[in-house]
Each structure stands twice: as C-alpha cells, then as structure tokens.
C-alpha cells in the first residue's frame, strides 16, 4: 500500500473497494467517526494522480471509517459503537450528491458523547445484520427489522449492550451463506457461517459466540462472501517451481 499512496504518519487505510471501472456504481459514499456521511459521483475519482485525491473535508479531528458504492435505489445502514443504528435511503432526495472536497451532512446523531460511528454498510434485500461485541457475543437479525427513515436521527437499537460485554466490535450486512471471521486481541481467530449464528431481534443481546479472556476482547470482524470463496476455490494453484518430476518422467 505504501507504493500506492503517500500516507501521513497518523493516517491509515480504512476501506478497500474492488472496482472494475468508474461506471460500476453511480456514487461513492463516505462515513466518518462523528456520524457525517457524504455522497459524490464515482466518476469524480477517475484520476491517475499517484498522490491521490481529496475525498472529503474533515472537521474537528474527525476521520473516515467506511466507504461504500451505491446507486439511487440503495439504502444505507449506519451502526454506532454503542449499538444504535439508522437506515436511510441513498437517493438524491435524502442524500444529495456533493463535490469531492465537500464536508458532508449528518447521517446519525449519538445519544452519548462517547459514542461514535463504527460502520456503514449497504442494506441489501434478504440479508442479515450481524453484530458482534467486544466480549464475544453475537447475533444475526433480518435487515427487514429496520425501516428506512430520514438521516440525522439517533436511530434504533441494532443490539442491546451491557457493560460487561463491551461495545460493538463489528456490524456487517451478510447473506446466510457468507462466512464471518472474528479476531481477538490475543491473536485468536474463529470462522463460522452466518446461518450458524443465532437469529434474534434488533433489541436483544445475542448469544456467546467467541470465548475471550478477562484481559482480551474482540477487536475486528470481517466477512468472506460465498461468491468470493467459490472464486478462490476455483483458482488452480500452479506446482511449486521447486517440485521436480522424477527422472525419466520429465517432459
């Protein structure tokens, strides 16, 4: 990544998007830690500048936490560290497109000063919202339990949290046959299919998903889609160049 972008010491990559071209989607939406979201045309980023482009003007020590490709008919789901969430339309009436250097608008407001935006995802139909806490508790909830409303509200619970289970470590939109990876601070990683996680309503606490010690916590959650796993399994791995055919069998 250092060969592609010139990052300042305090900067780090928060999202990588797979693009065929700049017509793949109509818009790029960015979301920040302070709950700001900004939509701009994807074609605005069609540039060969090796130093990159300014994608959003940040205020008050804010930082980007998520980026998604969207079209007019899509909905966005924003989830906070303390388990609150907002689903809103991505159409121009709700979220008007802005120039690259604009600062954006409020996507979600927080109930407490210590809360912040954890993740923004595209709310795909017939999917699940998988939430995992720092203490290793998890659940999956049908996306249909979220109604699309206007942006800029405090939203509804995505998961009921209690202090001993920690805040949210991850919130992802997944299909039932996707797989989830959870990584703990002690380096332990577990992997499971989404449809093996207990289904529960929005305002519930979930069930034990990953055992973590008193001094450890879940620090990251990632998904692998069924399509990407199938594509990976279909790749033929060439023989190692160190492998030599037995004498007399070489072509």
TrEMBL record:
> Which SUPFAM superfamilies does UniProt cross-reference here?
GyrA/ParC C-terminal domain-like (SSF101904)
Q: Which Pfam families match?
A: DNA_gyraseA_C
Which InterPro entries does this one have?
GyrA/parC_rep, Gyrase/topoIV_suA_C, Type_II_DNA_Topoisomerases
* UniProt record, GO biological process: DNA topological change
Supply one GO CC term from the record: cytoplasm
Q: List GO molecular-function terms, semicolon-separated.
A: ATP binding; DNA binding; DNA topoisomerase type II (double strand cut, ATP-hydrolyzing) activity
Q: What is this protein called?
A: Unannotated protein
């Amino acid at each position: 990544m250092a060969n592609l972008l010139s990052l300042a010491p305090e900067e780090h990559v928060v999202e990588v998007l797979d693009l065929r071209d700049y017509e793949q989607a109509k818009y790029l939406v960015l979301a920040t830690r302070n709950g700001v979201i900004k939509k701009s045309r994807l074609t605005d980023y069609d540039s060969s500048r090796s130093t990159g482009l300014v994608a959003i003007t940040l205020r008050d020590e804010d930082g980007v936490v998520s980026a998604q490709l969207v079209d007019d008919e899509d909905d966005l789901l924003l989830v906070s560290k303390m388990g609150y969430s907002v689903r809103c339309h991505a159409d121009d009436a709700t979220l008007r497109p802005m120039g690259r250097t604009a600062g954006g608008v409020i996507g979600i407001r927080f109930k407490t000063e210590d809360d912040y935006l954890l993740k923004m995802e595209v709310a795909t139909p017939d999917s699940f919202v998988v939430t995992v806490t720092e203490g290793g508790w998890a659940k999956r909830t049908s996306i249909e339990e979220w109604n699309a409303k206007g942006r800029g509200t405090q939203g509804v619970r995505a998961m009921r949290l209690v202090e001993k289970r920690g805040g949210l470590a991850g919130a992802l939109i997944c299909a039932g046959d996707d797989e989830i990876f959870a990584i703990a601070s002690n380096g332990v990683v577990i992997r499971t299919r989404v449809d093996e996680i207990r289904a529960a309503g929005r305002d519930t606490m979930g069930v034990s998903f990953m055992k973590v010690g008193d001094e450890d916590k879940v620090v990251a959650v990632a998904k692998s889609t069924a399509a990407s796993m199938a594509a990976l399994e279909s790749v033929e791995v060439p023989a190692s160049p160190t492998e030599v055919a037995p004498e007399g069998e070489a072509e």
